[in-house]
Amino acid sequence: MNPEYDFGSGCTNPDTFPVEKLAAAAAAGIREVGVDFTRYPGDLGHLGMREMLARRESEREGVQVDPDHMVLTNGSMQGVTLTAEAFLVDGEENVIITEELTYSGTIGAYRRLGVRMAGVHVDEQGMCIDHLEETLKDLQRAGTTPRFIYTLPTYQNPTGSVMPRSRRLQLLDVAHRFGVPIVEDNCYADVHFEGAKEPALYALDDTDHPHIYLCSLSKILGPGVRLGYVYARQPMLQKVLDRRYDGGNSLLTASVLASFFGDGLWDHVEQMNGPLKQKRDAVFAGLEQNVKDICTWSHPVGGLFIWVHLPHDIDHSRLRQLADAARVRYAAGSAFHIDGLALPNLRLAFGYPPLEAIHEGVPILADCIRQACGASDRGERTAAG
Fold it and tell me: What pLDDT does residue 378 have?
C-alpha cells in the first residue's frame, strides 16, 4: 500500500517539474543532434551539456571549470561507484573514510564493492576534523592507507549540516598531510534557501592534490532523468574513465536537458527553491506545534532533509507499526549509519509530498512518536542528542 504521507522519499518537488518546457526542449534537442543518435556518445558525453554544467560550476564557485575534465554519468550514483572502483586495489583490503552518517545508497554501493568504511563523527557543521585526524592516525598505525575520503559537505544527507569554510580548509589540510584523495559529493548544492553559500571543496583547493567532485541534476529536476557528472583533473579523470564500460551517458537525455536549461538554469533553480522552502517551513511548523517538548531537529538552510532526534526510549518497531498503519512513511536513522546501528533519529524528506500532505502528515507522525515512547502527556520525555 502506497503511503499517503511520504516523508521517506528523497525526490524533489513534482509540483515544479517543467513538463511542457521539457517537451519543447526534447523536440529541439533531438533536431540538434539528428543522425548523431546513431553513434555512441563517447566516454565524456554530450559536449553541449558538459559546457552548460561547466558554466554552472564556474558561476556558482567562482573558478574556471574545463568541460573536458567532466564526465557525464547515469546519475551521481554511477559517479560514486566509478570513482570507488578507480581507487580500489584487487586482492587488498580497501578502506574508505566517510561520515559515519551518510547517504544510504552510497553505503549500499560501497558494501557491494567489498569496501570497509571507517566512520567519522558528524555534528551540526559536518564531518568532525579532529576525529578525522584521529581516524587517519589509527589507520596509519595499523599500516593501512585509506583509498580516499568521501564527504557530503553541503546539506549533508541525512543531517542537513553545512560544513563552514574554516572547517573545509581544515579538511583539505588534513587530507594533504596524510596524502589521502578526496571525493566530494555536492549533489544538493543548488537547493539553497537562505544565507551565504559555502564554496565547494574543490574551489578552495588550488593544489594538485587528487580530488574528485560529484554532482547531479536529480535534485534540481528529478532523479528520473538519470544525469550526473564527475569532475576531476588528470590523471584522476582517466582512472575514472578506465572503469567505464557502458558506452557513455544517454545522448538523448543530455541533448534534451542542454536544450532545456540553455541560459535559464538559475531561473529554474529559483523557481524550484521557493516552493521547497515553503515545504521545509511547513515541516518546521508541524514539529514545533506537536513534538517540541520531546524531540529536537536540524534546521537546514538548503537540501531536502530534516534530521529529527527522538526520545532515547522510543520503541522503533512500535513507531514503524504505528506509522505504517497511519500510511506515514519516513526513513529510520539506522539506514544512514555505516554500520546500521539503531539510532534515536529519523529523517524527514520534504521535497516530494504536497504541502497539504505535510500539514496533515506531520501531526499524525507526531502522534505516532508519542505513542511509541509512551509520551502521551507533554513534557514526559526529552529528545536524544
Answer: 41
